[in-house]
């Protein structure tokens, strides 16, 4: 707005210093009615003196929204301002200059800020002080708004003071938290060392006990053989004794008969002499009576023979009774042994069936290996490229198979590749994933396996606990947005380091699975299914562990495995139990299941979780092979063909699961099943292989 004019002659003005501060402070004054004298300075209003109303016209009302030193009045488009038509004098008057008071405040602020040392810890406090001084000038300069501005400043100062006090009170807590965190880290490391030593000792004790058991089994077999031999010898001796006893009794009988004959021979002459001396009539009567007695004796003998023809002697009866009792006992023993042998035979028959199936698979694999076999390589050549030289390579390769040596070689080469300082960016082409698009070099963070495993666990936890929108998004998009949010400008370095490390560590199931899911080769439902298996087993063990001690016996673990995985075979349950035995507790036959099922750092190769993963992928391969055999004669697979194939190999499959599998194979919702056309068999099997697929019910027995 224009400055107010007064009647009479044009006033003149001077500048009078009113305040001593960081620079001279003056009030702006009017030189004349024609304009402002550019040679005069515009002093700041002193803090201690009021702004008089008589100086009202001295402060310009330059608009706060002006982007430059001057602004133009509004005019119609494509026309000249009216002031130009009326003369240059009026046009120049329409230009509004920026107030010099504002200019001096800005210059003062810039000068004070440049003079500060912003490298100190309290740089923000120092930087705030010049702004306070400028605000004080504004409060003192505008008396009309001074109460309001002072109240605003007071509230801000009180708030800042409260925040400082709060920060100051939290400083000891921060120090205590850091100290506590360090103590916890040291304690965790010491506990891990103790557990590692304890595990080693338990493994040694286990090996020693197994040797003792084998030795005792051998002694038991030897003693059983000795007992069997002694029993045979005792039976032979007993039979010999019986024969001798019977022979002795017969001999005694013969001796008695001979004695009786001798006695009769001695008494016979006396009787003959007596008879010769007796009367013949008497002898005739005696003979008649003797014949009569003989006839009666003969009749009685015949009667007894007829009555007791089927009766055996008591001695024979007792002997036969004793033999029968012994035979009954032997039959009972043999029946018990027979039942036991039958159970063992059934078990061996089942094992034999499984072994035959495994043998068929092994023979097929052997044929495939024979077909693909090549001459054995000279592994000594690897010593030239493996870090550590020939001695290190000889130590590493000792006792390992070809497949294991390939894994060792890949691990060594991956480690040497990951030691370089920079990765080459993949560029920004259309074929490059959005999270890998970068030109130039990318710094290698050289992540250790433990740090990388912890980072991957955090990514999976964030993905599973995120919002519904994050859960529905693709894993690669979530991976990119998560690292961008967490690391900001360093996200590219983390992305390349995680990507390259997981890609090269192909022997690590956990990391390589993360790489396959990130690159889209495997669906993330596979990882969720694997986590669900271990979580289900953990819940079942928690239900069995009534005392919540975290420890169960081998029998309880086996029962939990059979309940959680009802479709697994006896050998698979035994493999899982054996994998858990390496985590035995201090007491014998006890397993710390919480330690082996809640380990979030990494999936160790010999852990029970690794065995669960291995069995899951093998069962998935077998399931898909059965499906492939059913679809072997079909080149173009239809929806009905796939339904029939799944129902044939898995009769217990439910409709929801079947629809899910078909949707994944044809990549369409279930509402479009009737409209879907045939699809190549290889494409169907490849899509099913990339997602979570498993048997729902037991297979039909053939």
Task: Explain what you see.
This protein is mainly α and 702 residues long. Among the domains are: 175-280; 418-521, no CATH class; 522-622, Recoverin, domain 1; 631-702, no CATH class. It has helices spanning 82-86, 88-93, 100-115, 123-141, 146-277, 280-307, 314-372, 389-397, 402-417, 449-464, 468-472, 475-487, 491-504, 509-518, 525-544, 554-564, 570-580, 593-597, 608-630, 639-649, 655-666, 681-689; strands spanning 422-424, 441-443, 551-553, 590-592, 636-637, 679-680. The chain has a two-stranded antiparallel sheet. The chain has a two-stranded antiparallel ribbon with strand order 3-4. The longest helix is centred in the N-terminal third of the chain and has 132 residues, at 146-277. The model is unreliable at 1-45 and 47-94 (pLDDT under 50).
